[in-house]
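Box 3.1 A note on notation
Throughout this textbook, protein chains are presented in two layers. The first layer is the amino acid sequence; the second is a token string describing backbone geometry. Keep the layers aligned when reading.
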Amino acid sequence: MTEPHPFHIVLIEPEIPPNTGNIARLCGATGTTLHLVGKLGFSTDDRQLKRAGLDYWDEVSIHYWPDLEALQAAYPDARLVCTSKKAERTHVSFSFMQGDFILFGKETKGLPDSLIEANPATSIRIPMSGKVRSLNLSTAAGIVLYEALRQAGMLE
């Protein structure tokens, strides 16, 4: 499958409707494809989800997958970029390529350790200082996606 979108955001089992709505809006604003994988923690008819995305839903290319294996079967050449606070490399030291699939895990658990361990060369983290354990999912997606777009020269 080939699509004109420069990057793909993949949410694996997202749990909080406003986060997914905000990320859908981010994808609509940047021409990024959104992939929702696995069991969602909400209905896609959820009022909070729709409200967070406002009236931009028709601007978003959204695909639904039963699991990550199905997505990988549809995009066998995709490069998976895994986000995790456990990764060694930061998002700004990573070289993004157009077509990357940037994976984010569920809000309460993140991505499975096995996925990070299987993809060490393409696992990244957002550096943080202090006692904060993590960032909001939609904030993290925005930070990483805009770095990828900047590197691709797509922010002019």
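The first helix runs from residue 17 to 30. The chain has a mean pLDDT of 90.
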